């Protein structure tokens, strides 16, 4: 359940960037390949924000899909996770989207 | 609760050196967060952050990597499920490389110093991190452990992560390489079941090959499953108990140590 530590990290990061500010909304990006379960972060969020400047804040999570780029044919494709295989048959591909775990913005109360 | 390491009471570090009694430490320096002055945004304003949630961990990992590089030390993040043989492999490795390449170990477990005692008995310096409720090691814990461990220049540090195929995959510790230890008793489908763990592995060690006659495990199927998830990972088969197949593992360590020295 690393989502507890992840949620604590996000609360600490917001508090550090905006000290002494009450926060009414936090927007996150949790990519499909980030290894983090959005529902688990939602579950932890109220627990972790209790007594902090984020207490009571709304949590909005954007979950972008995975996109890979094939080094052989040059096209972008959505992988059939966990197998990264281009429709052209090549496994030589890099993940170009869907890996991020990011605080995109916050709204100040 | 610690916002950096995610533990309830904070990790406890215990240093064990060969032939010495242990020293306990509960270093929580990483709780001192720097505060910067910012203009206070007006109420209702949206502040764009675009900040990685694990930015703090990643910063410390970068510092760890630099600290290790400055000393010519190869650091390996060894991950597996519980009971796949990490400590047994490290005991044998420490004994058989002794005199040639010093191997120091950072042990991660929720509780006890049992693994550290085994590594100490094998003749290596070792720091035990007890994460309490934490399910993985993070870069801050490793930073403190490295200072306590004081590994010699041009040596190898193996970070034995908490036994878990899920959570440790997300946390960069500052290692040079990621090694996943699997065993034939776990089943051949694990790479596809735990893709985040296997996808970034540089090396996968398949352990307990001495048990192959007694379990239903197809090494070829395992290799195929691994290729699908992690086409670039090197796969080596060995038995940490009997020593069969360990020489290529030592060669891999030697090559890595040479490249980082």
Extract low-pLDDT stretches of chain B.
1-8, 27-37
Return the CATH class of chain B. Answer: Alpha Beta
Identify low-pLDDT runs of chain A.
Answer: none
**Helix-and-strand structural type of chain A:** alpha+beta
- The amount of beta strand of chain A, in percent, is 25-35%
Can you offer a commentary on this structure?
The complex is a heterodimer of chains A (109) and B (261). The mean pLDDT of chain A is 93. Chain A has one domain (3-108): 2-Layer Sandwich (hypothetical protein PF0899 fold), CATH 3.30.2320.80. The relative contact order of chain A is 0.26. The radius of gyration of chain A is 17 Å and the shape is elongated. In chain A, 25% of the residues lie in helices and 29% in strands. The longest helix of chain A is centred in the N-terminal third of the chain and has 15 residues, at 3-17. In chain A, strands 2-1-6 form a 3-stranded mixed sheet, with helices on one face. Chain A has a 3-stranded antiparallel sheet with strand order 4-3-5, with no helix packed on it. Chain A has 109 residues and is an alpha+beta fold. In chain A, helix 1 crosses helix 2 (38-49). Chain B is built from 8 helices and 10 strands. Chain B has one domain (12-27, 52-260): Rossmann fold, CATH 3.40.50. The longest helix of chain B is centred in the first third of the chain and has 16 residues, at 55-70. By secondary structure, chain B is an alpha/beta fold. Chain B is globular. In chain B, helix 1 packs parallel to helix 4 and helix 2 packs parallel to helix 3 (114-121). Chain B has helices at residues 55-70, 86-97, 114-121, 139-149, 190-193, 195-199, 219-229, 246-260; strands spanning 12-16, 23-25, 46-52, 74-80, 103-109, 126-130, 156-160, 177-183, 203-207, 234-237. The interface between A and B is large, with 41 and 47 residues.
Summarize the structure.
The complex is a heterodimer of chains A (109) and B (261). Chain A has 109 residues and is an alpha+beta fold.
